Amino acid sequence: MYFGLSEDQIFFQDNVKKFLEDNAPIDVIRKIANEDDKTSKEDLHKGIITLGINNILIPEENGGLGLDLLFATAVSQSLGEGIATLPFTGSYVMAPIAIKYGANEEQRNFYLNEMSNNNINFSIGFSEFFGSRNESELSFSKNKVNGKTFFVMDFDYATHIMVSNKDGQLGIVSLESTGIEIVDLITVDKTRVFKEIIFKNTGVDILENTLSSKEAVDNAIDAGRIVIAADSLGASKAMLDKAIEYSKERKQFNRAIGSFQAVKHMCAEMAAELEPCYSILWHAAHSFDSNEKNKKIMACHAKSHISDISKMISKKATEVHGGMGFTDLLGLHYWFKRIGVNRQMLGSPEIVREEAAKSQGL
Asked: ∠ at Cα 76 (338, 127), nearest 5°?
């Protein structure tokens, strides 16, 4: 039995990859990361919207493409490989899934229709649900929200923020509402924007469905973990490709360093560890839509395993480049840092593995 990406998924993936290669070379990424070129960042976002990535998971009846998570995963691989400075995981994956499972029919139709027309863009603040802190205590009461949410993702073009308290209750807040304080969070990954949001009696639209709201948050986080794993996988592939290319060009003692056994072993180890990750990732994405029993554990396995493999590859690929690997001129550090931040997003490997164990009653 063949299991892999379909022709349509590969076509979608290749379109995104080619768009980034043509419009976001390393010099442009560097300028965007240093906040020297806001125009290029906005043009990239408009271009990627034109390709339809904001509509992948939105149902056809709401103006979307009505595709599954495997399509989103394929796209995320290309975004990671091209170190895209664009929102995706929160805005275009977790938000529509949370609305699909957590909203009533009226809310679902309104938000999904507005998202498909690019009138509403979401940032996501779910840290309280899977990593509650004593000083945050996000709470809903009488259509008001109070407290803090940390590490809010995909804030770049957000008009609304979707938040969850520790019990899994979901609410949507317009960023035009009063009582919102936005604090910049500085991370090593300069290609993406993260915030801390403080709410003080801020108006909130609480999502209501007959299903448990916790189920909606669980599904959104599972999907987010799979897509983040895909981003890390794409970044790892880029670093491996760059290491192999560099080993063929860089010469010492009148020989390409790729001819030395130590460098061969490093590249071979990276390739051997990376290859099985594709199967794990694709199976996790397939299970999300087709295997209710296994989707939680597969999402956890994909996120934790690929996080560990990506960390190893980012280290060894940098070592292959020698001292040049740490320079801004080469730009390898953008992929290195992306992998490092992805490792912690929506739960570190240790947290995610513990969650997988609990889901199996261990």
From this structure: 60
Q: Is the dihedral of CA 313, 315, 317, 319 positive or negative?
A: negative
Q: Which helix (H) or strand (E) holds 286?
A: helix 261-290
Q: Which domains does the chain have, with CATH numbers?
A: 7-107 (1.10.540.10), 121-206 (2.40.110.10), 213-359 (1.20.140.10)
User: For residue 132, what is the DSSP state?
Assistant: -
Residue-wise pLDDT for 130-155, tens only, equals 766 666 678 888 889 998 888 899 99
Q: Specify the DSSP class assigned to residue 91.
A: I
Q: Which residue has the tokens 């956890």?
A: 300
Count how many Cα atoms sit within 13 Å of the Cα of residue 47 in the half-sphere of its side chain: 19
The secondary structure element, H or E, covering residue 158 is: none
pLDDT at 231 over 80: yes
Beta strands in the chain (DSSP E): 122-125, 139-141, 144-153, 160-164, 170-174, 180-185, 194-203, 205-206, 251-252, 255-256
pTM: 0.93
